[in-house]
Amino acid sequence: MATPELAPRRTIGGLVIVWVAALVIGTVVGIFVPSEGRAAWLTVGMGLCVILSFGVQLWSGRSQGFTRRVAASALGALFVLGIISLGFGLASLTPA
């Protein structure tokens, strides 16, 4: 029988790390990738965020709620990259 944790660590830090990484990846894609290839590179960035979310949650060492935390971090990264890609799409509609 396992002993319960008396004071569990906060898990919000692991979520925020992945969300910030998604923000950085989206910004880097927006700066360095031409508009024709941004969708493909944002997809690659989302894959990296999913891998990062697994790594961060495994590093935390808590088994309770693992799947929920990985899903929340990946969904947050998807939301962040979606907002960034919406900005890219709106920016492409305006004439230069």
What is the molecular shape? Answer: elongated
Mean pLDDT: 90
Number of spatially distinct domains: 1
Kindly, what is the distance between the CA atoms of the first and last residues, rounded to a whole number of angstroms? 65 Å
Secondary-structure element sequence? HHH
Q: How much of the polypeptide forms β-strand, as a percent range?
A: under 5%
Helix content: over 70%
Number of helices: 3
Transmembrane segments: 12-33, 39-59, 71-93
Keywords: Membrane, Transmembrane, Transmembrane helix
Structure description:
The structure is a single chain. The N and C termini lie far apart (65 Å). The chain has one domain (12-90). Helix content is 75%, strand content 0%. With 96 residues, the protein is an all-alpha fold. α1 (12-32) packs antiparallel against α2 (38-60), α1 packs parallel to α3 (66-93) and α2 (38-60) runs antiparallel to α3. The relative contact order is 0.19. It has helices at 12-32, 38-60, 66-93.
